[in-house]
Design brief:
The complex is a heterodimer of chains A (170) and B (141).
Chain A: H1 8-62, E1 65-68, E2 84-88, E3 92-98, E4 102-107, E5 117-121, E6 126-133, E7 136-143, E8 154-159
Antiparallel strand pairs in A: 1-2, 2-3, 3-4, 4-5, 6-7, 7-8
Chain B: H1 18-67, H2 74-79, H3 85-90, E1 95-102, E2 106-114, E3 125-132, E4 139-140
Antiparallel strand pairs in B: 1-2, 2-3, 3-4
Classes of the chains: A alpha+beta (170), B alpha+beta (141).
Chain lengths: 170, 141
């Protein structure tokens, strides 16, 4: 029996196999791209948290006057009220303020080591609070929708300069 | 699957041989076996990176608490050293320890934190806090 070309079944089998392989390859590629994007985002948040901690501790250590302006958790919706105001010898007044997806730091005067405005990128929906705990200032950021600890929650303790007592909310 | 044109080969056949199936199966298995562990390892690395950041923050917070304590009370503060609730919750098997030593420059306290990640029990993260002798302010290094 002579046969020319391919049978319909053979073509169907080849197409099915090719589509399956293509599907698997496309799925892996898609997952790899998503993984890369989420990893970059996570690392940015980790880095941002470390930078914020370093800057906040440095500001508190150098402060000559501190005013805690809110004593209740400040959600991103209420971004007009600063969390804390610090008076620094070189930078002038420094203000920390919550944003939609960031914690902002503003300062009056340009100092050699810091720009006038910095935004520390954070997950959306964080609620921020600054409180005094003995001789420490506690800055914490929690996800507003849950009371459980999340990977990017922020807990920063900063020792007050000797003899300095922060003023309360006004 | 190899398709044979009837005029180019004396053997007419349809379907797939076992050898072809085996080769295809081996190739797909090799590709999957290479990529899947990468994804798993990647997820594990993300978790470990988050724990590292948390451990660094825990050490820095403990150092700040120590700095806020009068040097005369450092011994009692070191004896009462406890990891925070967040660290206990998120770092499996977390252990916090401190060792104090007197040097020519002043008192030096080394804080160390270890937890159950590969290598972290044998090589804990450490942070040193100094209380200089001559009226200088203590600072973590």
């Amino acid at each position: 029996m002579k046969q020319r070309g391919h049978t319909l079944i053979e073509l169907l089998a080849v197409m099915t196999a090719s589509m399956t392989l293509l599907g698997v390859a496309a799925g892996l590629l898609h997952r790899a791209l998503r993984t890369q994007a989420s990893t970059r985002h996570l690392l940015e948040l980790e880095h941002s948290g470390l930078l914020l901690a370093r800057q906040f501790r440095s500001d508190v250590a150098a402060a000559t006057d501190i005013r805690i302006t809110t004593d209740s958790p400040q959600a991103a919706a209420d971004i007009r009220t600063p969390l804390i105001r610090l008076q620094l010898p070189v930078a002038g007044e420094v203000v920390y303020q919550a944003g939609i997806k960031a914690l902002h730091r503003y300062q009056d005067r340009r100092s050699p080591d810091a720009p006038l405005h910095e935004a520390y990128r954070m997950p959306a929906g964080m609620a921020w609070q600054v409180e005094q705990a003995g001789a420490l200032i506690h800055l914490n950021g929690r996800h507003a929708a849950t009371t459980q600890a999340r990977p990017h929650d922020i807990d920063i303790l900063a020792a007050l300069p000797p003899g300095l007592r922060p003023k309360g909310s006004q | 699957m190899r398709l044979i044109h009837p005029q180019s080969s004396p053997h007419l056949r349809s379907g797939i041989s076992s050898l072809e199936l085996l080769v295809a199966g081996v190739l797909i298995s090799a590709a999957m076996a290479t990529t899947l562990p990468l994804f798993i390892q990647h997820q594990r690395m993300i978790v470990m990176t988050g724990r590292e950041r948390l451990a660094v923050e825990e050490l820095a917070n403990q150092a700040e608490q120590l700095r806020a304590t009068p040097p005369a009370q450092w011994n009692a503060a070191i004896a009462a050293l406890q990891p925070s609730a967040v660290a206990v919750h998120r770092l499996p098997g977390v252990r916090l320890s401190a060792s104090q030593s007197s040097t020519a420059l002043g008192e030096r306290v080394v804080l160390a934190i270890a937890w159950n990640d590969p290598g972290r029990q044998d090589h804990p993260l450490t942070l040193a806090v100094w209380q200089p002798l001559s009226g200088m302010e203590a600072s973590p290094q």
